[in-house]
Design a protein that fits this description.
alpha/beta; Peroxisomal Thiolase, Chain A, domain 1; five-stranded mixed beta sheet; four-stranded mixed beta sheet; 10 helices; binds oxa(dethia)-CoA
Length: about 325
């Protein structure tokens, strides 16, 4: 039921290097690169909002889709860092994009770093009733980072990605999981506290992430009754290069199947998978007929994946 017509992405221009972070907390470039694979992250400037960066990504995706903006009849916005609780970011984006039509469904999805893949699954089902869906995944993690906590502040960055989906005969295979986070390993404190910050038990999340990645990949291959050789690329959530390496070892997969851009953006939460997709499209790595596997995991605990055959080139 779904085809990806186009993709857009945007990362704020302000860059925070590992050396910049070593002036804020007791850390250094060598440790961060070795333990995570991250060198830079892009973060919003004062006054720059989640909606600002999402709009830029959405405008690119819309322009490349070949559709008129009034042909979009549904907007899904995945985020855990909305600028406001209400109106939803999806409603605000409709207004910012000057989409006039009223018969349009718009709502936000809170599924943390799994947000983009969860939004794809949601869009896929909605495409039975809607014609063209704009899926946006945008997070400003820098707004909820405790900049004195070296366990988290080195990991995250801000970014936005967007895709335009349309109806087709193709049915991607989705798998979504929700697990109890029994050690409260990845969460924010109450939104009613003076400041809301993300806290993380890194080792617990690391183990969960490797298991999430391997479980999803195994499930996808099993259900499609295929082997990894028939998957051209895995577009995975960019959380830590060591998570990908360990999952590859456990599955016996060559790491070249995974595209990585974590070195430049860090973990951008829901935006990380579409940032990968946009970069691969930009580099002309994806072609009609290929099969790609999207997979992401995060707070909840959630993990989601889908096996997607590219029915046409993605613009
Ligand atoms: O979207 C999903 C969200 N998050 C994730 O997927 C993250 C999953 N977790 C991780 O990526 C890793 O657990 C971290 C990168 C957060 C931490 O790496 P680690 O290899 O698990 O380090 P660790 O917490 O076991 O700490 C090892 C050592 C400790 O020192 P001692 O006790 O061995 O002397 C830490 O105090 O590294 C120290 N350390 C640091 N040193 C320099 C911890 N953080 C830092 C730091 N800079 N930023």
């Amino acid at each position: 039921m779904s085809r990806i017509l186009s993709v857009g992405s945007y990362a704020p221009t302000k860059v925070l290097t590992n050396d910049d972070l070593s002036k804020l907390v007791d850390t250094n470039d060598e440790w961060i690169v070795q333990r995570t694979g991250i060198s830079n992250r892009h973060i919003v400037s004062d006054g720059e909002t989640n909606l600002d960066i999402a709009t830029k990504a959405a405008q690119i995706a819309l322009a490349k889709s070949g559709l008129d903006k009034e042909e979009i009849d549904c907007i899904l916005y995945a985020t855990i860092t909305p600028d406001t609780f209400t109106p939803s970011m999806a409603c605000q984006l409709k207004r910012r994009l000057n989409i006039d039509r009223k018969n349009l469904l718009a709502f936000d999805i809170n599924a943390a770093c799994s947000g983009f893949v969860v939004a794809l699954e949601t869009a896929h089902h909605l495409l039975r009733s809607y014609s063209n869906i704009l899926v946006v995944a945008s997070d400003t993690m820098s707004r909820i980072i405790d900049w004195s906590d070296r366990g988290t502040c080195i990991l995250f960055g801000d970014g936005a990605g967007a895709v335009v989906l349309t109806q087709s005969n193709f049915n991607p295979i989705f798998h979504s999981f929700t697990e109890h986070d029994i050690t409260d390993s990845l969460k924010t404190n109450s939104i009613y506290d003076e400041h809301t910050y993300l806290s993380m038990k890194g080792t617990d999340v690391f183990k969960f992430a490797v298991n999430a990645l391997t479980t999803c990949i195994r499930k996808e291959l099993e259900e499609a009754n295929t082997s990894i050789d028939n998957v051209d690329y895995i577009l995975a959530h960019q959380a830590n290069v060591r998570i990908i390496s360990l999952a590859c070892k456990q599955l016996g997969i060559n790491e070249d199947k995974f595209y990585k851009n974590i070195q430049e953006y860090g973990n951008t939460s829901s935006a990380s998978v579409p940032l990968v997709l946009a970069e691969m499209v930009e580099k002309k790595m994806l072609k009609k007929g290929q099969t790609v596997l999207f997979v992401a995991f995060g707070s909840g605990l959630t993990y989601s994946s889908c096996l997607w055959k590219l029915e046409g080139d993605i613009e």
